[in-house]
Write a structure and sequence with these properties.
The chain has helices spanning about 25-30, 80-95, 105-115, 120-130, 140-150; strands at about 1-10, 10-15, 50, 55-60, 70-75. It is an alpha+beta fold. Helix 2 crosses helix 5 (about 140-150).
């Protein structure tokens, strides 16, 4: 076991874990931050997406030993950010959530998209969000919410 000092949602967190432990399990099991979901464990579904130094990252495949000093933002902390708050508000406004399991990963990916492309086209949205799976099929509402958040941020 090794002790790692992580910056999670602006707070320092010390964890004592094996170096190969994926960030997802550090967040969920060690820090009890269960908003980030386990979906597939192979970076294919997007349910575990967090921001690592501002980049949307699949936490299920990133060992804690590779985090270093890079700040981590999870769904629990994204609402303190202007873009994050706009996306969360748009998700509610457009009634995106059905079962909700994939939504934290969807929101984290949408926030990263809007930070990179504040006025995304449909093609930008499809490309960015394409790796996030939603079994309930709320893709149309997700696209509407991203466009609504973009308009709100003008």
């Amino acid at each position: 076991m090794t002790t790692y000092q992580l910056s999670v949602n602006g707070e320092r967190k010390d964890v004592d874990v094996d170096s190969a432990t994926p960030l997802l399990w550090v967040l969920r099991e060690e820090l009890k931050m269960t908003g980030t979901k386990y979906g597939c464990g192979i970076s294919a579904c997007g349910a575990c997406t967090v921001h690592l130094a501002g980049v949307a990252t699949r936490s299920c495949v990133v060992p804690v030993s590779l985090i270093g000093n890079r700040p981590i933002v999870t769904i629990e902390g994204i609402g303190t950010d202007t873009v994050g708050r706009a996306v969360q508000d748009a998700w509610v406004e457009k009634d995106v959530v059905q079962c909700g399991y994939c939504q934290s990963g969807q929101i984290m990916t949408a926030v990263a998209l809007l930070k990179d492309k504040p006025r995304p086209t449909d093609a930008n949205i499809e490309e960015s969000m394409g790796g996030n799976l939603c079994r309930c099929g709320t893709y149309v509402r997700i696209r509407e919410a991203i466009k609504s958040a973009s308009a709100q941020l003008k």
